[in-house]
Amino acid sequence: MTELTLDSVREMDRKDPLASFRDRFEIPEGVIYLDGNSLGCLPKATPERIETVVREEWGRDLIRSWNTADWIHAPRRVGTKIARLIGAGADEVVAADSTSINVFKALSACLQLNPERTTLLSERGNFPTDVYMMQGLSVLSGGRIETRLVDGEDIMGALDETVAALLLTHVHYKTGRMRDMKAVTAAAHEKGIPVIWDLSHSAGAVKVDLNGANADFAVGCGYKYLNGGPGAPAFIFAAKRHQESVFPALSGWLGHAAPFEFDDTYRPAPGIDRFQCGTPGILGMAALETGLDLMLDADMTMIRFKSLALGSLFVALMEDLCDQHGFTLACPADEAERGSQVSFHHPDGYAIMQAVIARGVIGDFRAPDILRFGFAPLYNSFEDVWHAVEAIRGVMESGEWRNDRYAQRAAVT
Ligand SMILES: *Cc1c(COP(=O)(O)O)cnc(C)c1O
Fold it and tell me: What's the predicted TM-score (pTM) here?
């Protein structure tokens, strides 16, 4: 590689076809934000949209807005927009509830598809909520269903005829390692196992082709790369071929075939609608839809290309810091296996990250020792990457991370 300088990095920004998207986000003065994989930035259009929903749709039109502003179809309308980002059909995705709740829906659906099977399978070190939801279902089953966790590299060997569902995160939240969705799904299908893909770190960040991979179910977050705001609605995908076979375990009234008949008996709605449960949070839906509309103006191939370029620049600029200050790469060096984040191990990772944040560069820390930096190609620039590495360099060379105040753990890391 030719020598990297601030000028050469700025040249990358000048040539970047996505550069203009940055102006459509609120980026606070003096902040370099590399945590869009935890909470995406605020699109400038969102406050105005929320203001309209609050003052006009809620404040003035009140209950009528379920019809006049089409609130009732927001989960499907937003789901259709998400579908375009993840290779799904328009009638296969609904925006609803949280990712955790949608994991429950997908797991319980798989148990119905395979009523004789007794194992829910995932990898050790998966995002905790996914595994906790499996454990809750095991208890609910009175012990009939077992939760089994194996090391990530042993998943293929653990696929057998007892497994009712395989639940995996497509891009691992700590290591950023991306699974081969098509190959894993095909291997699971050979044993009759449906696969649930958690796309929390994939949707809006990497190219996803659920139907190209013949996926069964998927879930994901609205508040990460989709920029839907804190606690935004999540989404669930159910392949068309499975939809009519599932009697939802969370059989709420909005998943009923005719909610406004107020029948005493639950009848699932046709298709993906049965994966809705209760009344959707319309303010959150409005913010999520605004984030999606922005993202759909960009091309996913370009997003992926830039995401990898940002990550690889970060890795290259960190090289001498790794040698001198004890960081080791925690994500795949190979771009084909990497999501939209770069992470490093360091034994003093927590304090170092706090000191880096104090310099205005926001990443995050994941126990026990991972510093995590996410790249959101719509608002991160190559120059951001340069300054982030300079901040880390400053923190290490000055030793300021050793200050006691950076050792105090906050509730959210
Ligand atoms: C962020 C994340 C979640 C979050 O679930 P919530 O229900 O929104 O709290 C779930 N799974 C994975 C893999 C995540 O990265």
Answer: 0.97
| SS3 state of residue 21 | helix
Domain 6-43+299-407 matching CATH 3.40.47.10: the answer reads no
Q: What is the pLDDT of residues 202-229, one digit of tens each?
A: 999 999 999 999 999 999 999 999 999 9
- How many alpha carbons lie under 13 Å from residue 212 in its C-beta half-sphere? 10
Residue of 131, 221, 343 to mutate, ligand 1, most atoms within 8 A of C-beta:
221
272 SS3 class: helix
Per-residue tokens: 287: 């913010």
Select which of 25, 33, 217, 223 is catalytic.
223
Query: In 3-state terms, what secondary structure has residue 226?
Result: coil
State the CB neighbour count (10 A cutoff) for residue 389. Answer: 22
Topology of the domain covering 70-295: Aspartate Aminotransferase; domain 2 (3.40.640)
> Which tokens in the block code for residue 401?
């991370």
Selected catalytic residue, list 33, 127, 225, 365: 127
Place of tokens 């949070």: 281
Task: Report the distance separating Cα 317 and Cα 390, nearest Å.
Answer: 9
Q: Is 81 in the pocket of ligand 1 (CB under 6 A)?
A: no
Domain residues of the chain, as ranges? 6-43+299-407, 70-295
What tens digit of pLDDT does each residue of 364-375 get? Answer: 999 999 999 999
